[in-house]
Design a protein that fits this description.
Layout (H helix, E strand, L loop, with lengths): L2 H4 L4 H29 L2 E7 L7 H20 L8 E7 L4 H14 L4 E3 L4 H7 L1 H6 L3 E3 L19 E3 L4 H14 L6 E6 L2 H16 L6 E5 L7 H9 L4 E5 L2 H14 L4 E4 L6 H7 L1 H4 L2 E5 L7 H10 L9 H21 L4 H9 L5 E2 L4 E2 L17 E6 L2 E4 L3 H5 L8
Parallel strand pairs: 1-2, 1-3, 3-4, 4-5, 6-7, 6-8, 8-9, 9-10
Antiparallel strand pairs: 10-13, 11-12, 13-14
């Protein structure tokens, strides 16, 4: 008796097993090749608020811009012969959740770059993580000045930004206040979040540099709906010009509180007033009472108009368009760095971003060496546009003060 027979397996049954194994082999090869293809993808991450805070629409628009850029890049064959994918994590505007997301994206998903976050406070809570793990972050939304500052002098810095910077905004706003003949007594209002207090610190420092002495300084919570007590203190101090630093919804609530007590000083605010959440909170008539800065006005270039036509139907709101532009341009600058480095290695990408050798015609502007070893900000004060709401739309703003501003007025 053969050994096969001794073990209770007939030749016919053995043949069936062999045929079955042969039939499974192509499927196994497909699984292996599929896994190999998946591992060949270049993973990018987004970590930011997409649903919770007044700024969530900005996060949604930035993701749209990044995804649109990846569509274009993949349509051109990807990078280094590999497709690009975006792994999205919603941090719900919560610093602990945002920190957890960063560790998950870098350690588990193995992303080579992270975009985000939506909220400045979250960026400040975890910026040490990409610096420790040597993974670049390109921020297309949050604007707190300290986000891109290195951990220490001469330290490698993995935090980059393609968005407005609070300090640049504040310098321009204070230049306006300094030159305005109607701004004789200035007051500050700010929310108590990391974003609000970072902006307040900038306002205080720049005001000192420009010789402006505020006569009042009041704070409120991001979810407060009644700021009349703070405004009564500004009125008692005879404030004629108020500078507000907060997210969109609370700025709208400031205006509603002004309306309650019939007190309307000149109002100048940070760029969060361009958010639809501000307009919804304030209402059309009150929304027209503040001026602010943003990166794109209604006076769009042909390239910006073409991009708007492409993404408009998918924007969470028309006012969030600038963040879609920031996201698109940020992804394209990363693509340039990958090509220049010939690698997705973190330190090599950081170095390539700091030394981009070819100008890039972006949607917002042409980027010519946007970053350096010591400057990780792609946008400057000259990229900002004075804006206001009019008839439910964002429109360019100009008056005698804005027209009179010169480069020497921007101090701090």
């Amino acid at each position: 008796m053969s050994k096969i027979a001794q073990h209770g397996v007939s030749r016919r049954r053995l043949a069936k097993h062999v045929l079955a194994a042969a039939a499974l082999a192509p499927a196994a090869r497909l699984l292996v090749s599929g896994a190999a293809a998946q591992s060949a993808e270049i993973k990018l991450g987004f970590n930011g608020d997409l649903a919770a805070s007044p700024s969530a629409q900005s996060g949604q628009a930035a993701v749209l811009g990044i995804q649109t850029a990846l569509e274009d890049l993949n349509g051109q064959g990807g990078l280094l012969g590999r497709r690009l994918t975006l792994v999205i994590r919603d941090d719900l505007s919560q610093p602990p959740k945002s920190i957890q997301n960063m560790s998950d994206l870098i350690d588990n998903e193995k992303v080579v770059t992270v975009f985000g976050p939506t909220n400045s406070g979250n960026a400040l809570a975890w910026r040490h993580i990409p610096n420790q793990k040597r993974v670049p972050v390109i921020n297309p939304i949050s604007s707190a000045t300290d986000i891109t500052r290195p951990a220490s002098a001469n330290a490698d810095n993995y935090m980059f930004r393609v968005s407005m910077v609070d300090r640049a905004q504040v310098v321009a706003l204070m230049a306006y206040v300094k030159k305005s003949p109607n701004a004789r007594r200035v007051g500050f209002l700010s929310e108590t979040t990391g974003y609000g207090q970072g902006g307040l610190r900038d306002m205080q420092e720049v005001a000192t540099a420009q010789g402006i002495a505020p006569v009042a300084n009041e704070k409120f919570g991001v979810n407060d709906t009644d700021m009349t007590s703070q405004l009564q203190k500004l009125r008692a101090a005879e404030v004629d010009t108020a500078v507000v630093w907060a997210q969109g919804t609370p700025i709208g609530q400031v205006l509603r509180s002004m309306d309650k007590i019939g007190y309307f000083p000149t109002l100048i605010s940070c760029w969060a007033a361009d958010n639809q959440s501000f307009f919804n909170a304030a209402g059309q008539q009150l929304a027209e009472r503040t001026i602010f800065l943003r990166t794109i006005s209604e006076d769009r270039t042909p390239r910006q108009q073409q991009f708007l036509d492409r993404v408009q139907s998918r924007l969470p709101t028309a006012s969030a368009f600038s963040f879609a532009v920031h996201g698109y341009d940020a992804a394209m600058l990363l693509a340039m760095a990958v090509r220049q480095a010939g690698s997705t290695d973190g330190p090599k990408l950081r170095e390539a971003l700091e030394t981009l050798g070819t100008p890039h015609e972006g949607i917002l502007k042409t980027y010519d060496r946007p970053f350096s070893r010591t400057d990780h900000e792609a946008l400057e004060a000259e990229d900002l546009r004075w804006t206001r709401w009019r008839d439910g739309r964002l429109v360019a703003y100009a008056d005698e003060v804005t027209r009179s501003l010169q480069p020497g007025d921007f101090k701090g």
